[in-house]
């Protein structure tokens, strides 16, 4: 059985692996470092459930009845420990007050990113903050369904394709489920990230234990990376970080992201959350370098919850045109030269490849300046 024809047709959400009743699907990393599902034909009983939960085959536009807001958590410890304005931990608090469970992406001890659950604010710490690495959600959908069947509140936060995979997996609405998806630039390669971690560990002379892509201590809206390796903390600019440069230059993004159907304001989630781009123009009085969330409410359930959490936020309502940003109007374009990048990445060890990458970027800058003239 073929789950996808070309790589663009699989976002790696793993919903198919979770739904398979006989455990016939496992995910395997490809040469670009992304996981793809593989079917064991001997185990497969041709039930077709894996095709029914696929968010690429069954993408669905939202209802188009959105409300738009800018928001900052009033509790500065929540905002400071998050990447944008702290909307995610505010929603998590709402769920914890109801003895619920929160799902989000966290680093494990090998510095891989995977979804996991949190039952209290202490466990939530690992789920906070953006990780620019595709998260592995395997097992999450099944575990969420089990909690919902126990009549517990559940908050899931992830990429829009994961959120849609969850809705399809569950098949029916659950009144105590809150789905928050992210404005999404694209999923970067876990394989390239692993090479980068090994490189930084060798350079630092010890194991990496933390990596913050969006540290806010400089009050620069989280444009600083901070990591701890070999017992020592180091910081550098987000745009100076080698791995982030590869990501933002669009070399290490999953092929499906360049054809993504979820880069729109209309989604099948309750909330969409992201960075409020252009806050300095819309509400200059709120721009303090500590981050503002853009919040889109899609459902009546989200409107009801908003009424209950907005007392914990500094917020304002706005129009669609005030908060639009590129990833709400269309997918990220693949870099010209992505294929060349990938074959060079495979051919050389990372410490050497990084010099090749610096050369590629310098050539690009030079070429652009020549063309401009
Ligand atoms: C890969 C990626 C690309 C993004 N691109 C954009 C963008 O182009 N524009 C924009 O406005 N916002 C983007 N965001 C969202 C933004 O960075 C913040 O994550 C979001 O605004 C939530 O911030 P917060 O302050 O509310 O909470 P935070 O405490 O920062 O919570 C972050 C939430 O995101 C989840 N999360 C973190 N990493 C991942 C991951 N790898 N996969 C799935 N879920 C994850 C966490 O579990 C948590 O629920 C992106 C996020 C990711 C992960
Ligand atoms: S058709 Fe059914 S048994 Fe076969 S891989 Fe898909 S979900 Fe599993
Ligand atoms: S369900 Fe998800 S992982 Fe499975 S084929 Fe579809 S997109 Fe890929
Ligand atoms: S860009 Fe689209 S396909 Fe890629 S991770 Fe985000 S939602 Fe999924």
CATH topology of one domain: Aspartate Aminotransferase, domain 2
* Gyration radius, rounded: 21 Å
Number of helices: 14
Q: Identify every distinct bound molecule in the structure, by name, code or SMILES.
A: flavin-adenine dinucleotide, iron/sulfur cluster
SSE-based structural type: alpha+beta
SSE order: HEEHEHHEEHHEHEHEEEHEHEHEHHH
CATH top level label of one domain: Alpha Beta
Provide the CATH architecture of one domain.
3-Layer(aba) Sandwich
Global mean pLDDT? 96
Terminus-to-terminus distance: 53 Å
Describe what this molecule looks like in 3D.
The protein has about 375 residues and is an alpha+beta fold. Among the domains are: about 5-50, 2-Layer Sandwich (Alpha-Beta Plaits), CATH 3.30.70.20; about 65-190 and about 255-330, 3-Layer(aba) Sandwich (Aspartate Aminotransferase, domain 2), CATH 3.40.640. It is about 35% helix and about 20% strand. It contains 14 helices and 13 strands. The strands form three sheets. The protein has an eight-stranded mixed sheet, with helices on both faces. It has a three-stranded antiparallel sheet with strand order 8-9-10, covered by helices on one side. Helix 13 runs antiparallel to helix 14. One iron/sulfur cluster (SF4) binds near residues 46 and 47.
